[in-house]
Amino acid sequence: MRYLYGLIVHHGTDNIGDDIQSLAAKQFLPQVDVYLDREHLNEVRSDGKIKVIMNGWFMRDPRNWPPSDAIDPLFISFHISPKSANKLTSSKSIKYFKKYEPIGCRDYYTLGLLRRKGVNAYFSGCLTLTLTSKTRRRSNEILLVDLHMKALKVIPLRILKSSTIITHYPSSLANKLAIIEQTIAMFTKTKFPPLYNLLRNSPWIPSRSLSTFKSQKISISKRLMIAERILKRYSKAKLVVTSRLHVALPCLAFNTPVIFVHWNLKDPRISPYLRYLNAYSLKEFKSKIHEIDWDNPKPNPNPNGIYKLRENLVKTVKKFIYNSY
User: Fold this and answer.
1) Are residues 26 and 88 in the same domain?
2) Tens digits of per-residue pLDDT, 112-130?
3) How far apart are CA 67 and CA 110, in angstroms?
4) 14 and 218 in contact (C-beta within 8 Å)?
5) CATH number assigned to the domain comprising residue 147
6) What is the pLDDT of residues 194-249, one digit of tens each?
């Protein structure tokens, strides 16, 4: 049987991280025959079966689950949103999962959720760990990506001045900048004017096309191009500091030094990856900020562990794709 190949894309979200997930799947497909909206997989119609890698976050509208029978899915790096957990673990949904066991889970939360319902599931890791780059030379760029405000405030001024601040949510750029201005004004303007002025005037996203990103108006091809551009920045960066796991994981794939700062390191959606990250709680980051060598960033720990996760992911996906003919 010859299959079509579908790529899950995201029309109703302003999170570029979703498009990075799409790129992680796209790299394995012989071709993309059809784009499939994550939120409307139940509406897919086709004369032939469509092979689809079901990775990433599911979903905003759980009423549209499970997917159409036209889809032949590989569940890998799969995450169930807590808000959608009841619907995605209904008896109908569990019956659907059992048809396609084992289910590869992106995190321990999803793994536990499915196993408690009797589904054969395992921890696969995230498909973004398989991303690759042809870049061999590093830039001197330090990227601060969606960094929590409490962490941003304690970074040394000389580092802020030489860093670039980026967000994965560019359509809400104006709101983000307004919040930053208000917060910095409240906490630092009187004590630390240079920091206030720096953030107020900072190019949150350097590319004009990124700052005008609108999820409902931009084409899928343009969204993916923007995601590729951001990934290229990560692959070349001297250091990335972030509070988003799905900034940190592509950096691990590229072997880019990354510092991960989060308010809840015990979150089961995060905990599987902490062994591979230079990770800090907000409190730890504040108290240990003076120990960070910004000029010669510390390498990521346990690179061999990342290699093993990536190897298993690649093997599983290629078996699914190339057994299609």
Assistant:
1) yes
2) 999 999 999 999 999 999 9
3) 18
4) no
5) 3.40.50
6) 444 444 443 333 333 334 444 446 788 888 988 998 999 999 999 999 999 999 99
